[in-house]
């Protein structure tokens, strides 16, 4: 077994001596346990999760779906880029959700603007679906559809070859379809990427790099 247990451990004794968990010699990716907990992955606003080390190829079509819960009005949700300009990006900026796509000819954006600035950042779960089909892009938030015209109809494929960064990205990594550098603070769950008939549910505990991210447990509510 090479990955950590997604659980809480308490009251440990070794040779009938209580282990002091309050002053450990070293700590790595261990968070406090919560009285009330929900399914999901907690992002503490300082880091990111990196998935698909060998690089994810968006190409002509992809559908991204996830659920998020936050009280912050800014934060990166997901980015897949390339060394060139091709990329896709999902982010929350000033309480709006933006879905950016660049198939090589220029960035286009579908934006969902809620009625109130904080209505998506109210600490409740919201469902997001972002769809790229050749040159067409659309965004569905809690059942509300937004799509945008794309003047670059000849350009249909986002030739990405970098990992999927969720909730943020490292300072030395270029993201061509994200405007924000703010790491997401809150909870994410049910991240699914679909290409044609192939559907992949991503487990954050399998990420090859996790910083400030705690898989499988979300505090019941933020105060």
UniProtKB/TrEMBL annotation:
It holds the Pfam family Laminin_G_1. Residues 38-218 form the Laminin G domain. It comes from the Eukaryota. This is LAMA1 protein. The gene is Lama1.
């Amino acid at each position: 077994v090479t990955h950590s247990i997604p659980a809480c451990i308490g009251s440990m004794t070794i040779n009938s001596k209580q282990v002091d968990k309050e002053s450990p010699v070293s700590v790595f990716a261990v968070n406090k346990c919560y009285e009330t907990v929900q399914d999901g992955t907690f992002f503490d606003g300082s880091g990111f999760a990196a998935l698909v080390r060998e690089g994810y190829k968006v190409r002509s079509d992809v559908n991204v779906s996830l659920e998020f819960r936050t009280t912050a009005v800014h934060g990166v949700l997901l980015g897949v880029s390339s060394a060139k300009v091709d990329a896709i990006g999902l982010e929350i900026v000033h309480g709006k959700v933006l879905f950016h796509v660049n198939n090589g000819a220029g960035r286009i954006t579908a934006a969902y603007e809620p009625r109130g600035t904080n209505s998506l950042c109210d600490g409740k779960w919201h469902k997001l679906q972002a769809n790229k089909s050749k040159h067409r892009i659309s965004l569905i938030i809690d059942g509300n559809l937004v799509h945008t015209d794309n003047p670059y109809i000849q350009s249909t494929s986002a030739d990405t070859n970098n990992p999927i960064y969720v909730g943020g990205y490292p300072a030395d990594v270029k993201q061509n379809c994200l405007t924000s550098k703010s790491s997401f603070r809150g909870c994410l769950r049910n991240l699914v990427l679909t290409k044609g008939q192939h559907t992949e549910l991503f487990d954050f505990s399998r990420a090859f790099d996790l910083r400030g991210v705690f898989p499988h447990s979300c505090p019941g509510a933020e105060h």
